[in-house]
Amino acid sequence: RMASDSPESLMTLCTDFCLRNLEGTLCYLLDNETLRLHPDIFLPSEICDKLVNEYVELVKTDSIFEPHESFFTLFSDPRSTRLARIHLREQIVQDQDLEAIRKQDLVELYLTNCEKLTAKSLQTLVSFSHTLISLSLFGCCNIFYEEENPGGCEDDCLVNPTRQVLVKDFTFEGFSRLRFLNLGRLIEGVNVETLLRPLASLAALDLSGIQLSDVGFLTQWKDTLVSLVLYNMDLSEEHIQVIAQLRKLRHLDISRDHLSSYYKFKLTRRVLNLFVENLVNLSSLDISGHTMLENCTIPSMEEKMGQTSIEPAKSSIAPFRGLKRPLQFLGLFETSLCRLTHIPAYKVSGDKNEEQVLNAIEAYTEHRPEITSRAINLLFDIARIERCSQLLRALQLVITALKCHKDDKNIQVTGSAALFYLTNSEYRMEQSVKLRRQVIQVVLNGMESYQEVTVQRNCCLTLCNFSIPEELEFQYRRVNELLLNILNQSRQDESIQRIAVHLCNALVCQVDNDHKEAVGKMGFVMTMLKLIQKKLADKTCDQVMEFSWSALWNITDETPDNCEMFLNYSGMKLFLECLKEFPEKQELHRNMLGLLGNVAEVKELRPQLMTSQFISVFSNLLESKADGIEVSYNACGVLSHIMFDGPEAWGICEPHREEVVKRMWAAIQSWDINSRRNINYRSFEPILRLLPQGISPVSQHWATWALYNLVSVYPDKYCPLLIKEGGIPLLKDMIKMASARQETKEMAR
């Protein structure tokens, strides 16, 4: 069993269940709108933290999950619910949510890209100041803005009622326990030095994407700072000199996105030497995206020699020969150094091979989607051209990136393309049910969030790698809705249309009738008929046309409601037009007649088939040699059900009933009893009902022929079905019937 295949913990299952059923479990509704915790509930932080963090995850990644306005108020009273470590993201969190939990003694608060938070939340943060150890405000671009209402203006207020004003006077005064702080992508204009000065002993600081010309103030923590991240900060000689004084550093990240803007700074041998000499505790260094001003590598002859080694003494990068021990992590993504042979680190991010690319995706997904999308693009090439050796890890990382950046177009395009190659058949054996379900979830998320052609195509293609309908059963409604949505768009990409119709067809093949009814109610029949109508107008009979009829054949199988819809939406008119426009298309004829066989099985709908035009068409198709016997067989099936209603139901003058019966006998006698079949029966019930009757011997004969052919050509499949559905006694009784024809009895015997 694979590592990723272990079942979810009981804790996770319970958390998920409670969140999806808050009213039925932990809460009741006050005045039909506000959630309130039951008074006898007391939950420790281990449970509350998980509830909050899972809630955020569900709102973000599960489109069916409804967020609750008053969710955070459930945690307002620390006497009944305790929170300690919570991770909140994006638009899910607003000022009033943080305000609701202000009495909690939070130890860790991560706010990532929470763009709706304003300076009101800065004041709320002060409530946590005495307990907070870790704080992230990464990407909270409005948290230093407050709304200012210019006093006493009448007209201007209507035009511009609120002005955003930068808060200048907030500092971390009183946050005595704060050790870990992430201010990544902080808004310009905030004085970082003043903001941080009150913090006595910072251990980790992230200033990603902030431009500071003077970082001298960092030396106030030179005895405590072990981690410093300056991603995308434009560096200078002064910065380097300050960094070299932070001798306790274990993790230093000065990487940059080499596409984002022009940087004057270039890395030199001297700078790397300075880091190695001064930062003796360094175990992790990231210099991704930097241009090396001079050659830092050792001569190539020496470089190529011997087995790949991570020993500093053999390092291909000269300055790193001075390291006391290999680094735990070295970031070299989008630098030339990652392609060298001897790199003194256990983990390297780069673009040389699968391992380096996966390390890059792992390291940068959370906060650097711009880098991650390029790394996933490299993984896509590896999966497409070579074979992935760390498949499970690759899949997990891509799933995480797609979940984390649901609204990032680049990641959705590259991620969905990579998933297509990572889930194809050659990797199938290595994947667990749980993992494949996670793939389906993120693919459907992508289809929901993006109407963009490339994403839609990639997602549809990826779904084709799954066994349908079995593997999609757990998201049955949702996947059908999404596909119908694609097919109902006015402007359509041909290739997506073809894949989507194929998937729709596969989804309604071999599923229970309640599934078919549900999909019918979603507008499935109407959508397929519209596609057929469009193709007819263009005079093209392609895969879309054939799949659409095939899908209608499948969805009407033993589902009277859908058969009725087909008739109500002018299905018969389209049937006749297609027959006339495409007289040579055998597959098409077979699919159309299979569908009409389903309609004819419904007693209440048969009168609608009782017109001279339809009966003549069905009679003429008895002679068809299209697709072996299939078209003739299905036409005869339709007529057998109509005959079963007796002479009094024959409400037309032309053609005569006897004449049609004669043609039916002739057709059945012309078929080879050992014909291999292009048809799939889930039940014999519609055929068996034609046996115990004397009103139409020809219908009885057609039914007996059908059973005889199927059980003799495919005994393993159809003998058990015939026995299970009570066919044997029906055949025995029929042999005794006077009205049955001799040849029918012979066959039955």
TrEMBL record:
Entries under InterPro entries matching the protein: ARM-like, ARM-type_fold, Armadillo, LRR_dom_sf, LRR_Zer-1, ZER1-like_C, Zyg-11_UBL_adapter
Organism domain of life? Eukaryota
> Does the record's keyword annotation contain Phosphoprotein?
no
Q: Which UniProt keywords apply?
A: Acetylation, Leucine-rich repeat, Repeat, Ubl conjugation pathway
Q: Which residues form a coiled coil?
A: none
Q: Which SMART domains match?
A: ARM (SM00185)
Cite the Protein zer-1 homolog-like C-terminal domain residue spans from the record.
Answer: 402-748
The cross-references to Pfam families, in alphabetical order and at most eight, read: LRR_Zer-1, ZER1-like_2nd
GO CC, alphabetical = Cul2-RING ubiquitin ligase complex
Q: Which residues form the Zer-1-like leucine-rich repeats region domain?
A: 194-335
SUBUNIT field:
Interacts with the ELOC-ELOB/Elongin BC complex. Part of an E3 ubiquitin ligase complex including ZER1, CUL2 and Elongin BC.
**UniProt record similarity statement:** Belongs to the zyg-11 family.
Xref: PANTHER family: PROTEIN ZER-1 HOMOLOG (PTHR12904:SF23), PTHR12904
The protein, known as = Protein zer-1 homolog
- What organism does the UniProt record list as the source? Tyrannus savana (Fork-tailed flycatcher)
Q: What is the lineage of its organism?
A: Eukaryota, Metazoa, Chordata, Craniata, Vertebrata
